[in-house]
Amino acid sequence: MLKCPMCSSEVYEYVCPKCKYDVRRDFQEYRTLSVIQHEDIQYRNQFIKRQFQASKTETMLTIGQMQKSIKESVQNFVHVLQEIASKEKYYIELVDAGRNRLYAIVVIREITGLGLAETRKLIDSVPCIIKKDLNQQDALKIKQKLELLGAKVLIRK
Predict the structure, then answer these.
(1) Regarding beta strands 128-134 and 90-96, do their DSSP bridges make them parallel or antiparallel, or are they unpaired?
(2) What is the pLDDT of residues 5-38, one digit of tens each?
(3) Going by C-beta distance under 8 Å and a sequence separation of 6 or more, which residues neighbour residue 19?
(4) What single string gives the DSSP state of each residue in 64-120?
(5) Residue 150: is it exposed, middle or buried by C-beta count within 10 angstroms (0-12/13-18/19+)?
(6) Pairing, β 90-96 against β 2-3
(7) Which helix (H) or strand (E) holds 56?
(8) Going by C-beta distance under 8 Å and a sequence separation of 6 or more, which residues neighbour residue 134?
(9) DSSP collapsed to 3 states, 135-154
């Protein structure tokens, strides 16, 4: 099966069905060439192949470099987002102490470091702020502790 040099469609009987180009003309011209002309054509074909392979490898290198730079920029972006998230300060607000007020008092004393009387006053004056200036991870940990006891807690910025 041959390909037409003009339109690159498949040629079955030496004449292209699309552009009506006669492929035999190229074969006849090729047969009449001298040995030097054949070598010249082969050399040019090899040169073109080498150029194509070189450009292909350069393209692959540039794609690899682009992937590397994209990966680095995404990592930098994630790092910046983590820094921003770590700089944001949260506070925990107790909305309801739940049924287990005694356990809530114990946990809140542990979190805040207050005495028994101050913690009890804090729980009696619900809704109240338990702790301020926390990063997101610490705020989530404290929220989980209190929600396990049945307390209702909000995290705010």
Answers:
(1) antiparallel
(2) 667 777 777 777 787 777 666 666 666 666 666 6
(3) 4, 6, 7, 9
(4) HHHHHHHHHHHHHHHHHHHHHHHH--EEEEEEE--S-HHHHHHHHHHHH---HHHHH
(5) middle
(6) unpaired
(7) helix 35-87
(8) 89, 90, 91, 92, 142
(9) CHHHHHHHHHHHHHCCCEEE
